[in-house]
Amino acid sequence: MDIRCRRTLCEHNKGHTCFSGFVDVNRHAVCKSFEKDAKKNEAELDFTKNMFEKTPEYENSRHIKNVALKCDAKNCLFNSDGKCRANGITVVDDHEKSRCASFIQDI
């Protein structure tokens, strides 16, 4: 599973890849696992918004195939009994919140 993250100030983020062993997404599709790393600073802000200016150096995320993905967004297409069944997720910065961009409303 690929877990990409644009919250570069999170302590679990290395090369736009989440290295947390547990990802918790709440019912509003917000990543509750985000933890600000005091050692990181604003100079490390997300530059992937300007993808054509500089290509980010991504870390390989295949090592986290067995990461626990808890999801309380019951109306998400990928939620199966509180677990995420997506092939990969991406967390983005949404007005100071870590929002799961892979959320697709199940109708």
In short:
This protein has no helices and nine strands. By secondary structure, the chain is an all-beta fold.
What attributes does this structure have?
single chain; three-stranded mixed sheet; two-stranded antiparallel ribbon; globular
Q: If you average the pLDDT, what whole number results?
A: 81
Number of helices: 0
- Which structural class do the helices and strands define? mainly beta
Strand content: 25-35%
Q: How is the largest sheet built, in terms of strand order?
A: 1-8-9
- Report the biggest beta sheet as strand number plus sense, adding barrel if it closes: 3 strands, mixed
Basic shape: globular
Question: How many angstroms separate the termini?
Answer: 25 Å
Number of DSSP-assigned strands: 9
Low-pLDDT segments:
none
The tally of domains stands at 1
The SSE string, one letter per element, is EEEEEEEEE
Percent of residues in helices comes to under 10%
- Radius of gyration (CA) equals 13 Å
